[in-house]
Amino acid sequence: MVQSVPFLIVIIPFALLFGVVALEAGMDLAQVMGFSVLVLAGASQFTAVQLLSDNAPAIIVILSGLAVNLRMAMYSASLSPWLRRASARQKAWIAYALIDQSYALAIQHYERHPRLSLDQRLAYFAGTAVALCLPWMAASWLGATVGQAIPDDIALDFAMPITFLAMIAPMLRTVAHLVACFVAVAGALAFAGLPSGLGLLIAAPIGMVAGALVEARAERQGRA
Question: Which positions, given as ranges, span the membrane (predicted)?
């Protein structure tokens, strides 16, 4: 839990922002908390709120949220060697509490201490979950509550794209990352005319494939 504290510098403002933006999009407090408690995934929550505010069909909202969260499948595969002996109930709550920060902390701790027992690994993950997920929910509630005092003529929509840029920019560390980013951006612009955010659903996998191809080529050259 102590090791999780630095991540709160990012999580709490982001959750506050979600509460305010969701309120601005027309949600009430119960709907905001439903998102933060049941979905528990900041990027997909912002995506869903944006699409809902654009009156996109429910299936598009769901598919977009799933597309944004595809990285969780990779996180799960990475954790599998360390937690495969956990029970089905334990795996269920791990899956629920799996976010970027809890994964990063857990996988680094497991690799540094490979002789930990299963109970110790589960306890560590539980510590990250309590320290990170509960503040997200509480800050979302606070953002939605405080946001009710903000006048309607103050637009907050600009905050969402700025937040996504702040999240993505530090992650662009390799050529493959840059290729994936710019191919996805180009695709999103090319398909911008499609309805209900379909352009993003097409552009995102194209960008991921482009980045994967560049990374695979770099690996082949490194082995040559």
Answer: 6-25, 122-143, 149-168, 175-192
Widest Cα–Cα separation across the chain? 62
For residues 140 and 158, give the distance between their C-alpha atoms in angstroms, rounded to a whole number. Answer: 18
Asked whether the beta carbons of 60 and 196 are under 8 A apart, the reply is yes
Please count the CA atoms within 13 angstroms of the CA of 105 that sit on its side-chain side: 24
**In terms of Cα–Cα distance, which of 140, 152, 139, 149 is closest to 26?**
152
The answer to whether the CB of 147 falls within 8 A of the CB of 23 is yes
Annotate 119-152 with DSSP letters as a single string. HHHHHHHHHHHHHHHHHHHHHHHHHHHHHTTS-T
pLDDT-flagged residues of the chain (< 70): 148, 150-168, 170-171, 195-197, 224
Q: What angle do CA 189, 194, 200 make, to 5 degrees?
A: 55
The two three-digit tokens of residue 202, written as one number:
């097409």
**Structure tokens belonging to residue 178:** 């840059």
Q: What is the pLDDT of residue 140?
A: 92
> What pLDDT does 66 receive?
83
Contacts of 222 (CB under 8 A, 6+ apart): none
Is residue 67 within 8 A of residue 208, CB to CB? The reply is no
State pLDDT tens for residues 14-39.
888 888 888 878 888 999 999 899 98
pLDDT tens for each residue of 149-182: 766 665 555 555 665 666 567 667 788 889 988 9
